[in-house]
Write a structure and sequence with these properties.
It is found in: Nucleus. Pfam families: Linker_histone. With 112 residues, the protein is an alpha+beta fold. The chain is 33% helix and 10% strand. A hairpin with a 2-residue loop joins strand 2 and strand 3. Helix 1 crosses helix 2. The termini are far apart.
Length: 112
Amino acid sequence: MASKDDAKPGDGPRRPTPTHPPYAEMIATAIRSLCEEGGSSVSSISSYIQANYAGLPSGHDRLLPFYLNTYTANGLFMVSGPDHYNLSLTGGHQQQDGGGTAAAPDQPPPQP
């Protein structure tokens, strides 16, 4: 018979599946909707997300900067000032073609 000491770390209660969209989508929607000159601040992005999406994790305040940094490093967003973010001109969707040059994005970047 297995004892409590034999329990594996992943055997605990499962977290419910989030009801909100992925963070990349929520952040992009917030930046588009806020349409702030010079980019949107972390606090305004957070406020928008909290006001428009239910079921956010309790660690949202720690997760948002993590995701912003990750998605910025991946080219989805860009830093437009201290703690201010904007949508990337490429949208993070540029891929390399066989010749080693960047392929054109699916859609042209939005005009300011």
